[in-house]
Amino acid sequence: MATVGAGLAAFGYRALVRLPSPGTGGLFGPAVALLTLSLVVWAGLFLLPLGLLIPPTGGHGIEFDDSQRRLLMSTTITVAVGPFVGVGMAFVTPWIVPQTLTLSMCAALLPLVATFLWRAGQTLRSHAA
Fold it and tell me: Which run of H or E residues covers position 26?
């Protein structure tokens, strides 16, 4: 599940970056593409930490301790709650929604990256000793 989430997030982000600017033909098509790709990135960022929370079996997977699992859970909660904050802010001003959603996705990546770096450091220390 984590691999699928990482793939969805990477594919969606790559496609979002490569979207052409909307031309004079209207905004409906580009808006639908933007919304769809944003949902793909959101689903990927939701599935990635959720998949990492599944305990490894058969010697395959990454073993996280309880503190690292809490960080992964905070990532999942941040990704799940972030869009609702962005939509709620639309009542204040509609121009803030993209910035709020981008900020929540970046905030979700911080504990995810911290967890990976923490686990990598533990692994390096155990192999060096």
Answer: none
